[in-house]
Structure formats: structure tokens, C-alpha cells
Amino acid sequence: MDQLKPSSVNSCPLTALTFLQRAAVVYGDCPSLIYNSTTYTWSQTHFRCLRAASAIASLGFSSGAVVSVVAPNIPAMYELQFAVPMAGCVLNNINIRLDARTISLILRHSESKAVFVDSHLHSVVLESVSLLPPDAPRPELILITDEDDYIDDRRDFATTYEEMLQSGSEDFEWVVPASEWDPMTLNYTSGTTSSPKGVIHSHRSLFIITLDSLINWSVPKQPVYLWTLPMFHSNGWSYTWGMAAVGGVNICLRRFDAGAVYDAIGNHKVTHMCGAPVILTMLANYPRAAQLRSPVEFMTGGAPPPPQVVLRTEALGFLISHGYGMTEVAGVIVSCAWKPNWSKLPAAERAKLKARQGVRTLGLTAVDVVDPENGRSVKRDGVTMGEIVVRGGTLMLGYLKNPAATAKCMREDGWLYTGDVGVMHPDGYLEIKDRSKDIIISGGENVSSVEVESVLYSNPVVNEAAVVARPDEYWGETPCAFLSLKEGVSPKPPEGEMIEFCRERLPHYMVPKTVVFMAELPKTATGKVQKYALRDIANKMGTLSAASRM
Predict the structure, then answer these.
(1) How far is CA 440 from CA 36, 464, 500, in A?
(2) Where is the AMP-dependent synthetase/ligase domain (predicted)?
């Protein structure tokens, strides 16, 4: 049989774009997207994406040109996840909370040829373009207007999104990739570090992660999906294309508001939603939160959800699944696959199990926890920490124009080194302990900030908790806790009271020596706490002396 080889019949390039074509055939008359008073069917969404792709292609960009989008979860944003790559371009979603300087750096680094701009964000994008060097090409700007928007001065914009659609053709023959390894998306890392990198994903990796994510979460046909996760965050963990694959209904919200989320769940009979643990915290602590009429599946990721938050939200009717992923792997690649006998355990024990990241999804080839110095697997004892490494078909092609950073994480030993610190339990389930840069080394002991945060979240007055290192003249560094309190908590508890709360529940070396109260912790647009910003604050507080230590 060695004479048999791949042919054009059996080696068609894999691409998630084909899911839209199928949705138009199978679910054509079914709702695809609901936003305020606007409702589209899958047939309409298919035609709108073809028109947009046709119009983008008519701009004359070369194959593989980068086209950027700066927009929240609105219909145009969803359509452009298909339309840009259907035009043969590379899609670059930009975090809408970035400042003009950072957006300008991204536009220059990516050599973006066009930018679709939400009208509410036009000022920051215009400023970012003005910051480009005089000799740098200016991208073409297309304005996305909302239902009731009106911008008098549109001189800087070539056209509007809706006008562009009118010029496009729904008979457009969209551009099939020549190879499934061709780039499809360019996403810049979320900003929890000070130097975001451009992650390039192929049509192949996004096809695999999309199907993998649907299987992993057991998403049924025609779910009702509420967009509380920004689409610009790793393309909504691939559920942008995934909802087309299963003919789901996309419920779009321009911004996150706990009250609006509860209203949308009730009005549209939402079945699924995703978001960072901070979203769970906001839903759990919403003053008017009430028991859901029917359960809602909630996939969370980005950080381990504190068990107490899992308990609170599940009591309201949310069914929590925890996944692990990163921009470099395009979506969820490790999840806490639930075993039937675990359902018989007490609620607190179930919550602890759900806070673990779990096992690899079907689309990932392998995951391990290794000693970063020698690459050997650590003991499967749930205690020995090492770096989490992964390999498989969902991984990125690499970082744009950054071979050194690519080689640093995608090593010759066949693993992508994630920079996350974890342990492997005896049952083969993975648990994240921290980012490597967030581990606190106090007196030679490794302190997991995640474990300390989990204890702080169990305090009934705590809304948010984050722990970083503060310099200490005796121990080298010690834990410093930053807390925000639940609405209505007054007066603020003394610092010593919070320290004593931890002392009763943690080994002495893990107890925070400093507690700082804030109205709100600094976060990225995807809900991740910006620990580098908190570390800056802790460092500016100076070295903790023995005399001042509580």
C-alpha cells in the first residue's frame, strides 16, 4: 500500500470557514444572531459575510494581508471573523481596552492594511493612526456604526461597514486557502505582560480547535450562546466559528453588565456562555442575582476559579466547567473532564475538583508538567511543581517577526513551554499553581499566589483577590494581597484581621504580610488581573522591614 499518496480528492485544506456554508444550508431559516432589536438568520449571516468578503477583496490587498478589527461583541464583529479570511486576508482582532499608543504599535508591527472601527472607539483609533511614523503606510479605515449612532465628521473613514456590504456581492467565490497551514488569524497576547506578541494561527489549527472545543464541552445542536467573552480574545476561544458549526444563536452584548446578562439569560433562554473567573465573581455578587429558571453551562478559563466562587455561582444555577488555554493554542486544550462518581461528593469537594484544570482535550496530542531545567516529568504527587508543556495540532505557527520568542517557547524537544507552573495529580489531572513569574519565593519556599487567593476568596467580604510578591528584608519576598470588597461592606476590615484569617488556614510562610484594599483590581479586557501592575505597586511600597511586619 506504500504507493498510495494524498491527492486533491482527500487533502483539501481544512478551514473553519466551511462551517458557515453548511450552517446556511442546514439552519438557513433559524436565528443566527440577536443584538438589541436586530435578528439575522444563518442564511442572512452567510450572505452578509460573503458581501463583506467581496468588498474587502475589491480593495486589492495581496493574499495574506492583515486586516484589523477594533470592536466589541456586535454583529459586524462576528461577521468579520468569517469575512476577513474569506477575502484571503489575515484577521487581526485588537483588544478594545488598549490605549492609542499600543494600538499604534500593533498596527505598525502587523502592517495592517485596513481597520474596521466601531464608532464608539473611533477617537482612540484615529489617535493611534496619527502616532504612526510619517513614513509608515496608513491603513484604510472603515467605520462600523451602531443602530442609533451618528458621527458628523467621517472624513478620516473611507466608508462605513454597511455601505461596504452594499457594494459587495453575495455570489462572491470566497478565497479557499492554498494550504491549511496558511495563516488565518493574528492575535496579540492579552497584556498581562508588558510586551504583547503577535500569535499567528493557521486555518488548520483553528479548524481543529473549533471542533475540539465543541466536543470537549459537549455543545449540542442549536445552543443559545451569550457573548460575555470578548470575541477579540482568541476569537472567542473559537466559538465564533463553533456556533456556525452547530447552528447556534449568538446573543451579542456591547458590554458586560451583570444585570443585562441576567436579563438576556431570561429573555433568550441562554444555554451556554464563557468568561474569565472575574465574570463569575460579578454574577455571584450581583445584588439582585436570583435563581436561574433553567441551568446555564458556563465555561471559565484564564485563571483557576476560586472554589468559593464556583460554589456561589452553581448555587444560582450555573453549571461550571473549567478549561485551560492561552492565545498560543487558540482555545481550551485542557479541561476538568468530570467523572460520574464525583457528583456524589460534598459540594465543597466538588468545587475543589472543578478548580483543577484536568486532562487534555481530544484535539491536543499531549500535556505534561516538567522540570524546566532538564525537561523531565515531575512526580505525579499533586505537590511537585514544574512548567506545563503541550504539543498538538491546535498550536500556533509562531510569533510574528519574532523568531527568538518563538524558539524560546517552541523548543526542539517537541514541546511548547507555556510559562505556567502546575502539578500533576496521581490520577493524571493537571492543576495550575501559578504563572512562573508569579511564584513567590519566600525564605526559599515556593508560594503559589493562586492558593493564597483561593483562601482569601473564601472570606465573605472579599469580592476580588490577587497576590503578588513584595520585597522583604528578611525573607527576600513575602506575599502581598490586593483586595476589593463586596458592595455594601462597611467599614473596611482591618489589615490584621485579613492576615489572621489567612493565618488560620495557611502555612505560616504563605500568609500575606501586607494587605492593600482597592476599589477595583486592574484587569485586562478579558478579565485577567494585571499582576505586573500590582507588582509595580508592591515594589513602590518598598522593602518590608522586620519592624513593620505584622
Answers:
(1) 46, 19, 20
(2) 21-400
